[in-house]
Structures are given as C-alpha cells and as structure tokens.
Amino acid sequence: MARIMRHLALLAVLALVAGGAGGGTPATLEYRLYREIATPTFTVAGFVVTELPKALGIGLPAHAALAADEDLVRHYLAAAQRTTERPRVDGATADGAAARADRERLEPLVERMLATQVAAILRDEGLGLSGGEVFPPVRFVFRDPPLMLIVSPREQVALRTAVPLAGDLDAVAMAEVEERAERLGVSALVVQIGGLATYPAMLPPAGDVAWLLEAVAHEWVHNYFTVRPLGWRYALGVERDPAVITINETAADLVAREIGRRALRQFYGETTGPHSAAGPPDPRTARFRARMREIRAQVDALLAAGQVEAAEVYMAQQRLALEREGFALRKLNQAYFAFHGSYADGPAGRLDPVVADVKELRARSASLRAFADAVSGVGSAAELRALLVR
After folding, report:
1. Which of 57, 192, 286, 373 is 20 to 30 A removed from 341 (C-alpha atoms)?
2. What is this structure's pTM?
3. Which of 342, 341, 19 lies closest to 164, judged by CA?
4. Domain encompassing residue 218
5. How confident is the model at residue 273 (pLDDT cuts 50, 70, 90)?
6. Would you say residue 337 lies in a domain?
C-alpha cells in the first residue's frame, strides 16, 4: 500500500510538472506574452484535472490484455476522421452521429490497447521499471493537441518559450497572434504539433498503427525524462539551452523508434514503420532538407555576426525562393528554426554535433535501458560529451 501511495503521489507531481510553468509572474516574458497576444490559451491544468483519473487507472475498461487488432485501430481512425469532416450531403448528420458513437465506443479500447502494447515492450527492455511495472504508466488520450505559439529570441535561434493556444486559428488569426507577440521584441510562430507530453499525453487521432505506436512511446519517454536531469526544465518550459532540448528530442526519437518497431513486429507481425529504411530516400524530401540546412547555416552566421535584420531579410527572401521551388512555408524565421531544428530528423535542423553525440552514446550502450539511464542523467552538452570520453 505504501508503494502504491508513493506512486500516486509521484504521478500527481509528474502531471503538474508535465503541465508546464503556466503564465509565469509579471516579470517574466511568459506573463507578458499571455497579456499581449490577447488570445485564449489552452489550460493544461484543466486538461490534467479531467484526464488524470485515466492515468491513475480510474474508470478505464478492463481490457489490459487486449489482443492486437489493426482493423480496430483503422476503424477508430476512420470514425475519428468522419467526426471532424464538415457535412457535405443530405444524411450527413445521421452519419456523423454514427461516427461519433463509434469513436466514443472505440476510443478507450484503442488507447488502452496501444498503451498496453508499448508498456509490454518497455517492460521487456527494463525501461522505467519500479516494482516490476513500468513507471510512469503508459497513458495517453486521443485529442488534437493545441496549436503552439513558439517564441525565440531574435538574436539567436533558441526555443525561449511555447504557449499553448485554445481553439482553431486560421492563417490570418495565426499571423495576428504572431504580430502581437513580436511587439515584445521576439520572433514568433504558431505551429501545429504532433503530440504533447502532458500526463496523460495527448495525441491526435491520425496516422496508422506504426505511427501511433512510435508516437505513444515518444511521449512516454518525455514523461520518463521529466523527473530526471535531462527533462525537468524542458517539461516546465524553462529550459534555455538549445543543446539540451536537442538532446532530449533526439534521445526520445531514438528510444521511441526502437520501442515502436519492436511493438509493431511483436504484436502486428510487421517489420516496417514510419522510419523504415527500405527503398531510396525521397528526392523531394532530401532536397528540402538540404535547402533548409543551407539556409540555417547562413542564418546562424548572420546572427553570430550581430546582423539580426539582415538575417530576417534573408529568411523572408528564402521563403519566397522556396515557394518558387514548390516548398510552401507560411513563415520562416528564428522561431521556425527553433522549433523544427530541435528534432534529429527534422528538415530544419543543422548538422549538430550534439545529435551525433546522442547517436554515438546509443551505439555504445549495451542496451536501450542503459542508454536511457545515461542520457537522462545529463544536463548539458558538456556532460553528454563527458560520457563519451570516459
């Protein structure tokens, strides 16, 4: 009983920490942003209060041992898609009601099934074990994550803060939010995210089984890192070191990829996933990646020389050039690179030695658990490098 109560207390702390630091105090940029943008923001605390009972196992259906059923996942995703489509023909209202009923019936089953499968692989790998069980428990809910206002300093590419926004915004409304934020002398961009590592985590009802397994694992890794040196500042939204953010995202990508592939193979008999190496790389994707790295290198050079306005003019020009090449971007600025450049396989990342160091640490680690334990204990790029020179 004491261990159960301790776990419940830790889960409550995790939920609070994973919820982020909120609007901050009057002296902080976060507080001024919340006041300046004058746009409803997504309240993580409200989400946690509503959804945390699921994370604690309250009210969940008794399907802990659900067999893998890819058709069930497909049926659920199709129903979820139909509930978001606008009625186009007579009878769509009835069809929509049926789709909503299907979604409500299947959603907890699919959530539990995927979470159970990911947890089984984590347990096999020895990740997050406490008393023989994975901790924190793998929990997520299907919900479209909020749009996120990404903020970077103008003087460098760095993720300064991120503000979750409530509701749907069209391109005009996004631009208005960005313009108001930039009155504070920062670079801003509103983006759609693929998931949010609240507790329970939040994932959109999209993709396929392979993508979902990896996404569930990815958000769990962020939860796992939250109470460790690598992740707690990132979870609170107060991490100021871009290298630490890159370490966090790269490590989460690597662990999630291995867990997702193992789950796909073990439960569905499939060997390819969203990052399968089969076949040649897409030339268009390779071209876009090369162009973005070329642009990023020039932006970094201009900013390092103190030429902030020149860097911003250059990015505006390159956005138009990319559009002529068939790559449409709504906005290209420091905030764009701060967000997309945090991911090892992201198209906007630079050739960062930190990414290479994380991959080298994984290659040297005897197991996935050894890698996760080692990388989650670092708090800087220097500490990561020190692990490799021992």
Report:
1. 373
2. 0.84
3. 19
4. 1-278+352-390
5. low
6. no
- Number of folded domains in the chain? 1
Residue type at 311 in one-letter notation: A
pLDDT, one tens digit per residue, over 57-95 is 644 444 444 567 888 888 888 888 888 664 444 445 556
Cβ-contact 127, 369 below 8 angstroms? yes
| Residues contacting residue 334 through CB under 8 Å, at least 6 positions apart | 152, 153, 154, 156, 157, 158, 187, 299, 303, 311, 312, 315
Beta pairing, strands 186-191 & 161-165? unpaired
Percent of the residues in the chain that have a pLDDT greater than 90, as a whole number? 49
Mean pLDDT computed over 113-123: 94
Distance CA 201, CA 221 (A): 11
In a domain, 7, yes or no: yes
Can you tell me the distance from the alpha carbon of 167 to that of 148, in angstroms, rounded to the nearest whole number? 11
What is the rounded average pLDDT of the residues 204-221? 94
Distance of alpha carbon 61 from its chain centroid, rounded?
Answer: 27
Kindly report which listed range (16-20, 200-204, 262-266) carries the lowest average pLDDT score: 16-20
Query: For residue 180, is pLDDT > 80?
Result: yes
**Is 305 within a domain?**
no
Question: What average pLDDT does the structure give for the chain?
Answer: 84
C-beta separation of 212 from 201 below 8 A: no
Report the candidate in 185, 259, 232, 220 with the shortest Cα–Cα distance to residue 376.
232
